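# step 3/5: fold
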Amino acid sequence: MTIGIPKEVKNNENRVGMTPAGVFELTKHGHIVYVQSNAGEGSGFFDSDYKKAGGLILDTIGQVYGISEMIVKVKEPMPEEYGLVQPDQIIFTYFHFASSEPLTKAMIESKATCIAYETVEDDDGTLPLLTPMSEVAGRMAIQQGAKYLEKPAKGRGVLLGGVPGVAPGKVLILGAGVVGVQAAKMAAGLGAQVTILDINMKRLRYINDVMPPHVITEFSNEFNIRKYIQNHDLIIGGVLLKGAKAPNLITRDMLKEMRPGTVIVDVAVDQGGCVETTRPTTHEDPIYIIDDVVHYSVANMPGAVPYTSTVALTNVTLPYVLKLANLGWANATDKDPALKKGLNIINGEIVYDGIIEAFQDSVFAYKS
């Protein structure tokens, strides 16, 4: 199979869909891999590295899309890429369709086969291709939150770890999944007081077992959320509904209950955000302020640490890329139930329930 690795075009997205090591494995299995020139430079991988691994370098993104049976990316196609996607082409990347009707419409019209990293799901309910980026984003959420709590960044002027004689900062984490656990680990390591809310008692029991005593758990409901947002300095949104839009757990009116300079980092922004006032931002312009509350909602947070993120992503995507390349998407998804759940759109038809529920009837007029 011919496989294309284009350069990402999303704002400040320095990750790339495949490392040279991944390209080496694909070429070893007899596949042809085309890499757009400088696609990996932001992650520390150069054209010469890909050439040594057996990759073929093409100058433009149009050439890569034009010659490839399968495109392997990191982020969803941007508007400037919509017209490059071809009928029957496999696009394997993070899509997060439920948060973008224009993207969904464009991929329906393209007649491509769209397989989303974020909905590939193992038998135990884990999301193997989302997990490493959730780990990165969860850890980064505390780094970024700590930075924007500083007064020059319009935060409350709180040091999360405190100092002797001064109480540590307080971190509220919504969601006890991968993002929540990694954020809690980082915040606890800094010495902050951490509260995690979730509706899954099994996860809360797990966190109670593995986290230090200054990480406490409570059941998530509106009463408890309203209680904690009044005195916590940093709020992390880490709620995920597989392939669907995230619920708004913090509404616009709740912002007035927070102290000025409170920071919200909404990691769920790719799925629409779990805060009503969330809107996607970029690494160039990462924050905005509403009712004196600082919002950080960069939609590609792991793109700020591209070497770590690209290696971590290739580690988990490569086995699936090999299956798709060796067997074709129909046979590969038939033989692998986890990969089958990654199918979101096939030849202009939505096949994933979460997307159908997110848009209901709004996009179906675009079907052929």
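# step 4/5: annotate
The chain is about 35% helix and 15% strand.
# step 5/5: archive (pending)
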